[in-house]
Structures are given as structure tokens and as C-alpha cells.
Amino acid sequence: MKYEIKSFGNVNGQNYDEIYIYHEDIMISFSNLGARINRWQITHSNGTSEKLIVSNQDANQAFENKERFFGASVGRVAGRIGKAKFDLNDHIYQLEKNENDNHLHGGHHPYDLSLWEYQVIETEHKISVAFTYIDPDGNNGYPGTIQNKVIHSYDADHVWTVEYFAESDKDTVFNPTNHVYFNLNGHYQESIANHHIQVSASHYVPVRADGLPVGRIDSVDNTPFDLREGVGFGQVLNADHPQVVLKSGFDHPFVFDAKQEERIVVSLVEKQRQLTVKTDCPCVVIYTVNLPDSIIWADGEQVSSHGAFTLETQHLPNAMNEEGFGDVTLKAGQKYYSQTSYHLTY
To answer: What does the angle CA 37 – CA 40 – CA 46 come to, to the nearest 5 degrees?
Structure first.
């Protein structure tokens, strides 16, 4: 394994880096703009390559596509917070409203557009990039200064692992994720309908038209959200279920069953590719780029509707405002940790 550091470009006088890791015929890269994964691709002997995730060409394009969060670390709270406020210790905190009446993915000054410090750590079987960022007290309306660390690692077995570490000096709320988009076809102009997905989740969360959870957790039984035995995306993306119709696909949290180690398996039989996801997070948000009338360019390619899917492992969105959605409070001095790994076989 080896790595090199290249320029990711300059935006408003700030230079950003991209750290490329090479192993066999795989290249994967990370950037200090948002502690993001930016590329994961297979390079063939004839010099052609296939992209497994949606990438940004450079930092300028990442800013242009900021509403898509391609590959970025998202925080301090992923997902939507209803009416952009929450009650903590009998105090109402009013956050920025950056998506209509709600607060989305951290606000106007989020993790994904911040410059992170970093260090490359190289061992015999793994290369890691440790990113650090201090999120100050009051940023976007949140209480507490948080010391953040995100470690992206790639190992000799073709496993990408992302780890989140955090500690706050005041009680606050914290629920980060990585917003990676996959398409195992090798490019994102082709639909993910030919992918097979299996998720060990007996429950999912219905959402409103604005994407905010309706406030309950439903069984997946007899719905297109039952992915426990595996199903083709093509069978569920055009289902007549009201929740699928409402969002033109998936844009929903799935609640993992407790005792499964392998939480998600996505396969593309025709190319003999498989992605196996393990995580200690309690849920995953699966979004299938439900944008039939939009044109998004990323790294020289147009991202088609249903041209990629996210696997955002996290706690349930809007948990601080919904009974039974879990606790995303980070107490002062408490050490936060979460880990998700994505194992590629091809």
C-alpha cells in the first residue's frame, strides 16, 4: 500500500488537500475539506477506471454540490431537526433554519464545508488519515465546544473504515454520519435498479414530504421497506406504497435489528461486486437520489435520478424531539465513539 497527497484546489484563498491511497487495483481518496471520502475506484490494466462512489472533481465542485454532501462527514447532528430547536436540560436551543422551517445536517457552518487538520498514519496492512476539527460553542446555535476526530482507514483486505471520536465541554447533542453515495456499476449515469440490497432491519421510520420523521417507528412487514431477505432496488423504487411515492424512492431511516453483525449487504451480480457494511450505529438512512428533474454534475459525470444510494449510519434523525427515538445527548466530558466499515469484494 502507498499514498500521496495532491491539491484538491483553492476556494476563497483556502487551499485543500486530497490524500490518495493505492492498493492493488484500487484507489481511494480522502480530503481535509469536510473530512470526506472523495473517490473509490477500480483501475483496470488498460488504464480505464470505474467509480464506486460519487466524487467531486475538486474543492470548487464540492462547494457547488454542497447541498448533496458527497462523501462528507456530516455534523454536529445529521438529518433534520424539526423547527430547528430542541430542549436540553430545560433550556430551548434555537438553531439556524437552513431548510425551510427545519435545521439540516449541522446548519450553515457545518462539518462538511470546514477545513480539518490531518495526519497520515501508515502501517504494514493499513493506511489511515486522522482528521481533527474544533467545533466552537454556539456555532450554528449548538451549546458546547466539541473536539472532533474522524479517522478514515483503508486496509489490505479492501475495507474502508470510518471512526468518529468527540468530546464536549458542555452538555450538547451529537449525531454525526458520513454521506457517501454508492453505485457499483462503475459510473452514476446508470441506475442502481440492478443492485440487490439486504438490510437487517425489521423497522423503518416513515417521513413527511419535507423529509422530517412523522414521529413513529413502523414495522417493515408487507412493505417495500422489508429488505431483510434481500431485494433488487428495481423492485422497490417504483412501488406504489405511499411512502415510496411520496419521496419517489427511499429517503428513510431503517432501524437495525440488535444481534446482526453484518447490517447491510449490497451486491451487483453482473459484475461480481459486493459491499458489506458493519456498524455500531443503531440505524441507517438510505437515500436513492430521487431527483427526476434535476441535473447534478460530479467529477465529469451527470448523476441521474436513482443513480446512487447513500448508507448514512447514525442515530435516528430528530431524536431529541421524538419520544422513543433514542438519546443523542453528549454529556460534558463524555467520550463519543462510533465505527462503520465497508468491505468491498470484487
So the answer is: 155
